[in-house]
Here is the input.
Amino acid sequence: MKKTILFVFLLISSSFLFAQEKNLISRTNIQKDDVSELELNFSFESISTKRIYGDEISIEIYSNNNTKLPEISCKNGVLKIETKAKKGNAGEICSVVLYIPDRFIFEDIEIKTQTGNIELQNVRVQQEINVSFEKASVSLENIKAEFLGIKGIEGKFLAQKINTEYFKIYTEKANISLSLSSKIIAQSNITSYSGDITIYTPALGKDDPKIHVSTKKGKVTYR
Here is the structure.
């Protein structure tokens, strides 16, 4: 009986791993020296990042529908990953995993999505990161950039260990949680019409630039 249970468990586990591997539709490698900027334009696709050792930026696409895969191009230093689908049907899944060489620094990053979730970790940018979304969950962790710009409608925005000189964050309904790992050096703004706002920031002196926070229907918490 125990052997039968073990066999069934191994069979299920193997099937699950095989299904996961099957969902890997494509892998594209690009030399890091050919890339300076990143542009993502998504519909329902999700994006996540991971740091790796090496000289190539690798893009993996996982999906259960290979007729709606994002298109990848790299021209004049701009790496673009763009959706071909206006929206996803029920049950459709597409996720993009971006592997970034350790110590690689982008000049600029721009991300636009409708409903796809965004998860950026350990990303460094010389100038600006701009993210816009309609209804999505956006998670940023250990990010360094001169400027951080966020514009969203509905969902959730969570940012931890953010090192930026200044920022501008606006949402209509999305809750905002922002944790800064360093002081800003220029005036910054957080605005939400009805979402709650939570801010974790190093102690600011009277001569430090101000963070202007406003919400009409949400609540504001300082930590």
